[in-house]
Amino acid sequence: MQIWPIGIGVLIAVIVGFLIWLQSMRRNIVDEEKEYYSVNRRVWRLLAPFYDLIATPISKVRGQVVNFVGAEAGAKVLDVATGTGEQAIAFARHGYDVTGIDLSADMLRVARRKNRYPNLKFVIADATGLLFDSGKFDVTSISFALHDMPVSIREKVLKEMARVTRPGGTIVIVDYALPRNRIGRFFIHSIIRLYEGKTYRDFVKSDLKGLLADVGIQVKEELPVVLGAGRVLKGGTGGAPANLKRSSSQMVDSHRAPSWAAPHEIKAGIVQRL
After folding, report:
1. 110 has which bridge partners?
2. Do 271 and 124 form a contact (C-beta atoms < 8 A)?
3. Cα atoms in the 13 Å half-sphere on the side-chain side of 149
4. With b meaning 16 or more CB within 10 Å and e meaning fewer, what string describes 157-191?
């Protein structure tokens, strides 16, 4: 009696089972991402008018980030997930050529009302697919946004930030962390998890530096902020240390609206060309 047909049958069953599992995983990721975009719009529409008040405890971090980066005059800066623009405004205040992007038209409406700087512009854009040339910016930053993102989106955003940062440029990540001492860790974790929920708990337990390394971002310096409840990671994509001279590359002139843009946003002119 030959057993090879049985072996082949088992192998086929294993392969089919694996493909079904893989398809299920892909479906879960797609569903998770769709939920993120949907919730993102609804939540920030409600919070936009009050966000700056809510974010008061981290207001001093904005200036600390600018000083920590130490970019040269005239550097081109991209602030990802800029929200109401506080970090972008902090960069613009120092004379940098700044672009702030965000998914939320409501948050950007607040940011534009506050903008008093000709060297700062805000555009609605999806950071998972930036319509900018590779190496366009001297500095790219993202502040207190990664922790809200599903891991799949988080990875895409970081890859895009790495792509649009010039060789030798600077990538800045600002987000939650935990103090090193046990009492501080317990105190900070217990308070923040009350309003940030599961995404915060998962984020502070994750290996952020490992994820950054996986997408090609090398962390060179770290600055604890807000009594250790947050941290600023500064790095780049390798190469010589950044002297942050201006990039000469130009923005992509695209007539294509982002795939996630709602029809009323396109008609209202909220989706702008990058």
Report:
1. none
2. yes
3. 21
4. bbbbbbbbbbebbbbbbbbbbbbeeeeebeebbee
Is 44 in contact with 104 (CB distance < 8 Å)?
A: yes
- The predicted-structure confidence for 183-205, as pLDDT tens digits, reads as follows 888 988 888 888 887 888 889 98
The length of the chain is: 274
Q: State pTM to two decimals.
A: 0.76
166-181 pLDDT, tens digit each: 999 999 999 999 998 8
Residue with tokens 């008093």: 116
Contact 70, 129 (CB under 8 A): no
Helix (H, G, I), strand (E, B), or coil: what is residue 270? coil
Q: Cβ(61)–Cβ(225) under 8 Å?
A: yes
Sorted by where each starts, the structural domains of the chain and their CATH numbers stand as: 49-267 (3.40.50.150)
